[in-house]
Amino acid sequence: MTAKNLFIFAGVCLLLFGVPLIISPETMAKTFLIDPTISSGAAATFRGYGIFLTAVAIGQISAMNAGHSKARRGILITIALASVFILINTIYEIVTEVGNAKCWSIVVLDAITGLWSIMLLPKEKTSEA
Fold first, then answer.
1. CA atoms of 77 and 51, how far apart (whole Å)
2. Kind and range of the H or E element at 45?
3. Residue 126 — pLDDT band, cuts 50, 70, 90?
4. Integer distance in angstroms from the first to the last C-alpha of the chain?
5. Cα–Cα distance between 103 and 94 in angstroms, integer?
6. Which residues touch 98 (CB under 8 Å, ≥6 apart)?
7. Rounded Cα–Cα distance for residues 84 and 67 (Å)
8. Which contacts of 34-43 are long-range, i.e. CB under 8 A and separated by 24 or more positions?
9. Distance CA 3, CA 7 (A)
10. What is the pLDDT of residue 24?
11. Cα separations (Å) of 16 from 73, 99, 114, 121?
C-alpha cells in the first residue's frame, strides 16, 4: 500500500469516469441517475467535470514515481479530501433518490481511495530541500 500504487489506482479510477463524461455524458447519466434526462447545459458541465477528472488522473499517474516531497503530500491530501467529500455527496444522492444503486460503486471506490490516502498521510515525509 504505497503512494505509488495509490496514485495509479486513483488515476485509473478517475480515467474510468472522466473519459466517458467527456465522450458521452448522456450515457453516464443513464448509468448513474434515476432521471437520466439532462439539458445541453448539464451535458456541458458534465464534460467540463470529465476534463477536470482526466487532468487530475494524468497528474496523479505522472507523480507516481515522485519522491517524498511537499507536493506529493499535497496530492495525498487532495485525494483524501476529494474522496471523503465525494463519498458524502454520493451517499446523499442515493438517499435522496437522485442516484441509482450503481452509485454504490462510486461509494466503494471513494472509500478505498480515501482510507488509503488517509493511512499514508502520517507516513509521508516531506523534503525540506
1. 21
2. helix 40-62
3. low
4. 26
5. 7
6. 33, 34, 35
7. 25
8. 34/97, 34/98, 34/99, 34/100, 35/98
9. 6
10. 94
11. 24, 18, 17, 25
The residue written with cell numbers 488517509 in the block is: 118
Give CA–CA dist 63/69, Å, rounded.
11
Count of all residues that appear for the chain in the document: 129
pLDDT digits (tens, 9 = 90+) for 26-61: 999 999 999 989 999 999 999 999 999 999 999 999
Q: Which residue has the cell 498521510?
A: 121
pLDDT at 128: 58
| 105-119 mean pLDDT | 94
**Separation CA 45–CA 57 (nearest Å):** 18
What is the pLDDT at residue 127?
57
Residue 6 to residue 50: CA distance in whole angstroms: 20
The β-bridge partners of 99 are: 33
The residue type at 95: V
